[in-house]
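Quick log. Single chain, no ligands specified.
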Amino acid sequence: MNHPLWPVVREAARRTVRLENLAIYADEQFGDSINQLSSKISDHIPQRTNFPEHVVSEASTIQVFEKIEGFNKLIIQIGMIEPNIDVCWVQMTKETGFSAVIESCLQLLDAGYPGCIGCDDSIQEGRWDERKFRNSLGKISK
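-> predicted structure:
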C-alpha cells in the first residue's frame, strides 16, 4: 500500500493481531472477514484461545475495543469521524479502511507476527504516537 495512511493501517493491524479479548463493532457485512481473520489467527498462533469477536453495529464507523477486566477500551476506529487522540484512527471509509486493515493483518500473520520483531516492512516496532502521526497529516482537532 503506497498511501499516507499506511503507517496507521499497519499499527491497527498490529494491535488487532497482537492483542487478545477484542470486540469489533461493525456492520453485519464485515462478519465473514472477521471470522476469516479469527481462523487465520488460530492457524498462525495456535496457543491463542481468544479471538476477535464480531458485534453487529450499524454505526458510521468500525470500532475495535479491547476488553479489560469488564471494561471496553476503544483502541481502533475506522471511519471519517475523528476519535480521541488515544485511539488509533484509520481515516478512511469503513469499507476501504477495514479491507486495508484486514489485508495487513493477514500479511503480518503470514510473516510470523507477532513472533518476530521488525518482520513487517513499514515503521520500526515501538510505541505508536497517534498525536505525532495525526500532526504529520495536519489532521488533529482533539
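The chain is about 35% helix and 20% strand.
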